[in-house]
Amino acid sequence: MPGPLEGIRVADFTWVWAGPTCTMQLAHMGAEVIRMESMRRVCTLRMLPPWPDGQPGVNRSGYFNQYNQGKRSIQLDISKPEGAEMAKQIVAMSDVAVENFASNVIDRLGLGYEELCKVKPDLIMISMSGYGRGGPESGYVSYGPAQVPLSGMSQLTGYSGWQPMHVGMSYGDPNAGLHAAFAVLSALFYRARTGKGQYIDMSQQESTMAVLGEGFMEYGMNGAQPPRSGNRVAHMAPHGVFMCAGEDRWLSIACATDDEWRALCGVMERPDLAGDARFRTLADRKANEDDLETEIMSWTLTQEPFEASERLQAAGVAASPPFMNRELAEDPHLSERGFFVEKEHPEVGVRQHAGIPWRMSETPCEVWRAAPIMGQDNDYVFGELLGLSSGQIEDLKARQVVY
Amino acid sequence: MPESALDRLTIIEYNRTGGAAYATKLMADLGAEVIKVEPLTGDPDRCLGPFPGGEPHPEKSGTFLYLNCNKQSVMLDITNHTGRQVLDSLLRDADVFIHDIPPAEAEALGLSDKQVRAGKDRLVTTFISPFGESGPHRDWKAYDLTTLSAGGWTWLNGWPGHPEMPPLRPFGRQSAYQAGVNAALATMGALLARLRTGRGQHVEVSAQECITAILEMTFAFWPYMNAPTARWGQRPIHPIDFFQCKDGGWIFVLCVEEHQWQRLVELMETPEWTQWEVAANRFVRASNWDALRPFMEEWVSQWTTDDLYKAAQAKRIPFAPASTLSQLLDSEHLKARGFFVEIAYPQAGTIKQPGAPFKMSETPWEIRTPAPTLGQHNETILGERLGLSGDEIKSLNGARVG
Question: Distance between alpha carbon A114 and the CA centroid of its chain, in Å?
Answer without folding.
Answer: 29
